[in-house]
Each structure stands twice: as C-alpha cells, then as structure tokens.
Amino acid sequence: MEIRDTLAVVDDHAFYARTVRQAHSVQSLAGILECAEARHWSHVWVVPGTQLSQICSVPGELPGWSMATIGQDRYRYLSARRVEARHDSRIQIGFAEWLDSAWPWKKVRTPRDLFYTVAYLEHMLNLPVEWTPARVGLEYIRGNHQKSWDWFQPLKTNLEEEPRFHGQFRYENCCPEIKFRGELPADARYIVKLDKNSAFPAACTGLFLGTGEPVICGPGPEAQMEYDAHRAGFWYCDLNPRQSLYDGRRAPGFTGRRWLTTDLVEQLRKIGYAITPILGAYWSERHQILRRDMTHLWQLRQMAKKRRQEAVAWECVYESIGAIMHAIPGKLGDVDGRDPHFRRRDWWALIVGRAPATLLAGIEDIRKKTGLLPVLVGSNDSLWYAVPCADPVQALPGTIDRDQLGGFKEMYMLKVSDELRGWFADPQEKVIKRLNELARQKQTARAGGACV
C-alpha cells in the first residue's frame, strides 16, 4: 500500500508521517501549522485525548492565516493558508476527538490507530480524507463521473412551485414512511427484528435518476397516458388496495391520494393495487447514476469488514465507509450545499421514495417463501416477525443475508411472554420502543455475564 508523504498525525510528543517520527514542543494551533508548512504536510490529524486536541481546537484569531472552519465551541476541522499564499497551499487540520459525530472513530486512541485509519481510507477511496464523510462521499462521486458530469447539471425547474401542482407538491411528500402494527398470533413463541442493510444506499443501486429538465403532465387523462414504468418521476395518484393483503390492516399499505415515485407506483401495482395517475413530473432521460458508486463502496466496506479483528484502524475504516454511504443521499437533499451540482432534491426524493418500495418487495418475498407477514413495520428499514422457533435462519429461510447490500440482517430475537404480548395493545411507536429497550437490556445482561 502506498501512503502519501503529505499525510501526518500529531500527539503531545511527536508528529508521525510515512517515514518520519519528529518530536516537537508545539503547544498551539499556529505551531502545528508552522511545522506542517515546514515539512510540506498538507493534512494533519490531531490524536484524540491529547492536550493538543484540547488547546488547539479552541476557536480564536490566528494572525497571518486565512481559515475556513467547522465547529463553534470547538474547531472540528479547519483549512488554513498564509494570507499572502496561494489557495492550493492550504493545510488541513482535523480534530478526530471533536469530529466524532461525523467520523466514527471513537475507538481511536493512538497515533498508529489514527494514521492508518486515514491512510487505509485514502488508499481504498483514492482521494484525501477531508472534512466529513459527506464531503468525501461527494468528492468520490465527482471523481467517478468526470465523463458524465453533464448528468449532474443543477435542476432549473422548481417542482414545488409548479402552477399545475397548485402548491400540493413537496419532495418530502413523495417519501412515505411505512408504519404498521398487526396482530400477534396466539401461537407466537418468538419475535425477531430484521433490518435492511443500508436501505438508502441500497436504493441507489437499482434506481434510475432523471437528467435534464422534467416534463409536467396532467391533470387528468394526460398523466395516465404519459405514465411509464421506465420513467423516473413523481406522480400524484389515486390509490385503491382493492383485495390486496396490503390494506393497512393485515399488512402495511396506503389509501387515498398521494404523491408517489415511479418505483413505489410499480411496487404497489405488483401487490394488487389499482393506481390512477392524476398529475406527474417525469424525465425522458434517466440513468442509474449512483449504482456503480454505491456498489463499489459496499464492496470496499465488505473488504474492511473481513479485517475488523486485525486492528482498530480496520474497524474504523469499516464504519467510515458506512458513514460515507449513508451521507451521500442526505447531502443530495441539502438545499445549502456548496456545489449546486449536488443540490438535487429530486434525486434525494427518488432515492428515499424507493426505500418503501424495496421494503414492500422484501415483505412480499418473505411472504411467498414462508407465508408470514410482519407484525410490526417501523420506518422504511425495520420489520418484526412472530416466528415459531429461536433460529431466524430456520424460521425465515432464504431471508437473512448480512453481506448483501439491501439484504436483511437479524438484529435481535425475543421470547414472547404474557407481558410482551400485552404490549401489542399499545400504539406502534410505543411497542417498538419497548421491544428495542428489552433487547438492549438482554444484550447488556449477556455482555455482563448475567443469566437471561
């Protein structure tokens, strides 16, 4: 593995780079910058738990330096250059201790942990680790799409102000959250919770995103004629479950009129819904823009997963790639993003709107394999099933796959008691909260060696 010479970490005693350990007596942010400048280090990360991390992260004036920073009470990350210097001479300083809400590096304790966490990530992603997972994720996408950058042109049409939509369209309304609480069967012995692996990143892999400007159609028959299952778009629809199991009582479902993405329209039709488009906005040109990016990031994460036991750095790399994958969809929905090419709330809504479609597809797939429907659905990535045995693989054959992006993984298994059964008289949110809390208590007890 090749590590660049411009990367360093620092603790209270020394700077550490690829080929050097340099003792120091630095006690200020200016001192770190001056040492980095002298040694031509472009990126310096401060080891958490050190005096330097405490002292140098306190905001204040730094004469002679121009700085861009994040963090209010503490600097979390900063980019600095001499006032008279060129922009490309900037020195980046990261405070791992105060970036813990962004980078999942809580286990980092030593210079070696921090140095190799950053070095491994940079080697795998082929770009510098800077600022936050969201920033790194967008730079990763930018690097992969140099030949297709025209797909990322900012959208000129503001669908939320489209006159024909009469103020009814909001991107958030196209992303319905599936919530459901069913009946707990009388013969239920166990409850197993399943989560989808990285639901929103997984949604990116099979999703077509529109490029160029959208076409507006409707209201009325025009929208029905223009609707096409192969067109990325948003549709205001009349929904009727008819005789579908997915009626909101026996299984999760929707009724009435609402905005849906093309993916969700198609999935609801597959499970028996009658759907009539009334209004629409769709793209004539579409591409699976993020498929390669998310698939490759997942592969890198799986590689790091296999090495988690070798070193703290690999554990942090594994968690960091997950953070990058989850940050990308959210960043596309950021209206204040620095780069207008990534201010694509339409893409964000198509991604988030695909998540309930894939969840419903997963529920139907499990039903066909096992005959079971969930007794609870929370958000767009969690399912609870009542099963007859304590082995989820046996109870739900062909369902558990921790290594597949978008596959289901078992989170916990609980034995059904009379008390637990009584919880199902409560609202869905309260039932889920109680089940999760009971699972945490049992996991804590097992970790402490107590009998459960």
Report how far apart the termini are. 46 Å
Strand content: 15-25%
Rg, rounded, reads: 25 Å
| Portion of residues within helices | 25-40%
User: How can the largest sheet be summarized?
Assistant: 7 strands, mixed
- Can you give the mean pLDDT? 93
Structural class by helix and strand composition? alpha+beta
Question: Main sheet: which strands, in order across?
Answer: 3-2-1-4-7-6-5
Give the overall form: globular
The DSSP helix count reads 13
Number of strands: 18
Give start-end ranges of low-pLDDT stretches.
none
Overall structural domain count: 2
For this structure, the quaternary state is single chain
Word description of this protein:
- The chain folds into 2 domains: 108 residues, no CATH class; 226 residues, no CATH class.
- The strands form 4 sheets. The protein has a 7-stranded mixed β-sheet, sandwiched between helices. It has a 5-stranded antiparallel β-sheet with strand order 8-16-17-9-18, with helices on one face.
- It is built from 13 helices and 18 strands.
- Helices cover 35% and strands 20% of the residues.
- It is α+β, with helices and mostly antiparallel strands.
